[in-house]
Every structure is written in structure tokens, then in C-alpha cells.
Write a structure and sequence with these properties.
The structure is a single chain. With 137 residues, the protein is mainly α. It has one domain. 72% of the residues lie in helices and 0% in strands. It is built from 7 helices and no strands. The longest helix has 29 residues. The radius of gyration is 16 Å and the shape is globular.
């Protein structure tokens, strides 16, 4: 077993943790005004509010690795909808329409929905679920 096979499951957990925290930041900005942004104070019963609630809840779940697969799947779908409804109509190129992070979130979360939370997750500690990366490595 080589170095990469050893560290890959832990890098999966690191990817899950960091992407969950960054995703959570969008939800805290909308509802907790931290960090303050143009989206701070979003009404809960709006399309942005629903997205913010998903960002808040799924961001926490993904960060700690609890119910990682369904939370990541929901977060991935949310980012796909955000891209096609809000960002793509602004222009074709993601860098110019502001959709580059939405696309990355969508596919990182889609990967996490398939791969699971990794060895450093509450899913693993509470339920003993192993991700496919751990089984292969």
C-alpha cells in the first residue's frame, strides 16, 4: 500500500470538512449576518431564503460528516439549480457570470454524495459506515 492509498481517505475527509465550512458560510451570511454580505438579511420565505436554509443545515451536516450522502446530494442539487436559474442567464462563461464556485460546489458535493464522508466523520464514528475510498485503499 503506497503513500497515496494511505492518505486518500483522510484527504476525502478534509475535502468534506473544508467544502462544508465554505458552504455553511453562505447560509450564515444570509441568516446570521456573519460575515456581512449583500445577501445578509435574506427573507426566509424567498428562493434565496430556501437556498440559505439548505446551505445552513447541509453545511453543518457536511462539515461534521453526519448524513453526509443525503446532505451532499441536496447541496449539489441546490447549487445546480442556483447556477441554471440565477447565474447562467447572466452569460455563458462561468467566470464572467459568477457561477464558477456554484459549479465547483455542485460537483464536489456530487462526489461526496457518492464517496461518503471519509474516516474522520460522524457517519463513521456513529454508524461504522465506511466510504468506498476506504474500502479501495
Amino acid at each position: 500500500m503506497g503513500f497515496y492509498n494511505t492518505v486518500t481517505p483522510y484527504l476525502l475527509s478534509l475535502l468534506r470538512f473544508i467544502s462544508g465550512l465554505v458552504f455553511l458560510q453562505a447560509g450564515t451570511s444570509k441568516f446570521l449576518n456573519f460575515p456581512h454580505s449583500e445577501y445578509s438579511g435574506t427573507p426566509a420565505m424567498s428562493l434565496d431564503g430556501v437556498a440559505g436554509m439548505i446551505e445552513l443545515v447541509c453545511g453543518v451536516l457536511i462539515s461534521v460528516g453526519l448524513l453526509t450522502r443525503p446532505a451532499a446530494f441536496l447541496a449539489s442539487g441546490t447549487m445546480a439549480v442556483a447556477y441554471f436559474l440565477v447565474l447562467a442567464p447572466k452569460g455563458f462563461f462561468p467566470m464572467l457570470n459568477g457561477g464558477d464556485s456554484a459549479i465547483l460546489f455542485c460537483f464536489v458535493f456530487l462526489f461526496l454524495a457518492g464517496a461518503g464522508g471519509g474516516p474522520l466523520s460522524l457517519d463513521r464514528f456513529l454508524f461504522g459506515k465506511r466510504s468506498w475510498v476506504e474500502k479501495v485503499a
